[in-house]
């Protein structure tokens, strides 16, 4: 399918699709006339990319793990492993933010809150 149809089916702009192609997230074969031709399963992959971003994965993480997920005999298991690892990162970040919040809260009302 051409980039316009892919944009319509995926709900993404042509510019976004070109960016994803440049970043190595999707690949379109070039036709003789220079137009990109994308496989129909690209739409499903783009849904995965968007959901992964919504769950906090960076484009580089998605690109890094994309090939292994697509090639896996059990992609659900691979995705579960990635989600478990991401959950640990999120939990760690939450702990850091809670510690920061406590530190800030302890300084409220001090004569000079910026002193140790």
UniProtKB/TrEMBL annotation:
Listed Pfam families: MerR_1
Swiss-Prot/TrEMBL keywords: DNA-binding, Transcription, Transcription regulation
GO molecular function: DNA binding; DNA-binding transcription factor activity
Keyword Chloroplast: no
Lineage top rank: taxon: Bacteria
Signal sequence, renumbered to the chain: none
Gene3D superfamilies xrefs: 1.10.1660.10
Protein name: MerR family transcriptional regulator
Transmembrane annotation, as ranges: none
Taxonomic source organism: Paraburkholderia pallida
Entry keyword Protease: no
Domain (HTH merR-type) ranges: 1-68
């Amino acid at each position: 399918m051409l980039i316009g149809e892919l944009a319509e089916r995926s709900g993404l702009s042509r510019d976004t699709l070109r960016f994803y192609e440049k970043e190595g997230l999707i690949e379109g074969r070039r036709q003789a006339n220079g137009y990109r031709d994308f496989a129909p399963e690209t739409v499903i992959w783009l849904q995965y990319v968007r959901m992964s971003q919504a769950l906090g994965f960076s484009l580089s993480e998605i690109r890094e793990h994309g090939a292994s997920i697509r090639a896996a005999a059990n992609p659900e298991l691979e995705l579960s492993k990635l989600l478990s690892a991401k959950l640990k990162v999120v939990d760690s970040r939450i702990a850091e933010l809670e510690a920061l919040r406590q530190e800030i809260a302890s300084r409220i009302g001090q004569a000079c809150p910026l002193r140790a």
